[in-house]
Every structure is written in structure tokens, then in C-alpha cells.
Amino acid sequence: MTPNFLTGVSLACAIVSGIYFWKGKLLWGVFWMLTSSIADMLDGSTARAGNLGTVFGGILDHVSDRYGEFFILAGITMSRVVHPGWGLFALFGMIIASYTRAAAESMGKIENCAVGIMGRFEKFLLIMFGAVMEVYLPEGAWPRSKWLEFSLIIVGLTSFITAVQRLLYAKKLLGNRREV
């Protein structure tokens, strides 16, 4: 299995996850989200271990990750389990945190701008936790339900904080360096 094949598997699993979330089948959404995350970790590990990494493979991985985030969060947003505004808030936050990193690394020529309060994997774990709690502690249960919605709010907030942290980190490294 090549790293690019595993990237494709990760994206396919994210799409399936989004479909299950959209249909309100939260536990199946979590299962496929977890499967997507595992495949995503394996693609990079396979590339490094087998010395198979390519620049295109890295780009494909990053783009596929954004598509995967979109499908998962779009499914959650359309499920009616959460208020759509919070789904969009989390989705935009995750995308802008990623974009900030990509801009700093490509435009600023910063080798690695993966700084911030919470990474993609931790955000996914939080979403999965919220979805599982939503199933096992339904409306009216104590503590108050809306675990998935609360998870999305935290994901959105930490994503925006991460974007600001990345901007500040880039400013610190780049100073007032002029464009070439």
C-alpha cells in the first residue's frame, strides 16, 4: 500500500463518516471518523518508513485532509443534532488554522508552522467524544446534553486561537522581512 493510496482510503472513510453523521447515526460516524484518522496517520508513517514521501504526496495529503474535515463537519452540521451555526464555526476555524499554517510555510518559507493550542487529531478526538456522549447522555440527562455542539464550539474556538498563534509565530520568525 502506497502513502497516496492510504490518503485516498482516509478521504473515503471521511466521506462515509460524514454520510453517517448526516443521517444521525453518530456512532457509525465516529467509527468511520476514527478509521479515517488511523488511515491518515498511516499514510505519513508509511511515507517516512519506506522513504516514499514526495512533495506531491504531501500536497495531496493536506488537500485530502481539508476535504475530509469538510465532509465530516458538513455531515454533523446537516444532521440537525447541532445548531448549523456551530458546525460552520468549527469548519471555518479548522480550515483557517490550516490555511494560516500553509501560508506561513509557503509564503514565509517557514519550515514548520505547526504551532498552536490544539492539533487536528485532538480536535477530531474531541468531536468523537462529543458524539459518543451525545448518544449515551441524551436530551434531559445530566449533565446537560448537547455534548456534540459543545465539542464543536471548543473546536472552533481552539482553531481560531491556533490561527492567531500561528500568525504571531510567523511574525516573530519573519519580523519585517520584505516580499521578494
Detailed description of the structure:
The chain contains six helices and no strands. The protein has about 180 residues and is mainly alpha-helical. It has a domain at about 55-175: Up-down Bundle (Four Helix Bundle (Hemerythrin (Met), subunit A)). α1 runs antiparallel to α2 (about 25-50), α2 (about 25-50) runs antiparallel to α3 and α2 runs antiparallel to α5 (about 120-135). The longest helix has 28 residues, at about 145-175. The model has no long low-confidence stretch (mean pLDDT about 95).
- Beta fraction of the residues? under 5%
Q: Architecture of the domain at 55-174 in CATH? A: Up-down Bundle
| Shape verdict | globular
Count every helix, treating DSSP H or I runs of 4 or more residues as helices.
6
CATH superfamily of the domain at 55-174: CDP-alcohol phosphotransferase transmembrane (TM) domain
Calculate Rg over CA atoms.
17 Å
* H and E order: HHHHHH
Decide which structural class fits the backbone: mainly alpha
Low-confidence stretches: none
